[in-house]
Amino acid sequence: MRSSTTRPAREPILNLPAAVAFGVLALVAIHAGRLLLSEDTDFQLIIDWAVIPARWSVAFGGVQAEEVINSLKGSVPDEALSPLSMLAQYVLNEGEGRPWTGLTYAFLHGSWAHVLINCVWLAAFGTPIARRCGAWRFFSLAAASALGGAILYTIVNPLQVLPMIGASAAVSGMMAAASWFMFAPADWLVEEGRMTQPHERLREGLADIVRNRQVLIFLGVWFVANYVFAFVQPVGVTDASIAWEAHIGGFLVGLALFPLLDPLPTRPGRISA
Question: CA 236, 239, 241, 244 torsion: positive or negative?
Answer without folding.
Answer: positive
